[in-house]
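TL;DR need structure tokens for one chain.
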Amino acid sequence: MQDLWPYVFIAVAGWLATDFWRWLGVLAGNRLREDSEAFYWVRSVATALVMAVTAKLVVFPTGALEASPLWMRLGAAGLGFAAFLVSGQRVAVGVGVSLVLLAAGLYAIGL
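>> reply
TL;DR here they are.
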């Protein structure tokens, strides 16, 4: 039991550090109008963060995806984004097309 205390401390400290900001975001978010500049800014920052993580995963992957060529990852992401736009901005279509293209490319090159 003595060996578990550092992990308990990390879990509790992590929960306290993030939960406070989540509740603050909920409280502040309820007071924002959807057409306000603050809401547009928050949505823009959130979108930018998601895209930054996505770009990092495509350009600098880890694990099994690291063995795939960069051109294949970029092509699958680009064509998936095109499918997303053509389908009326359906996320499932964009993700699905990207996954199928990447899987087919990996199969074709023998990975």
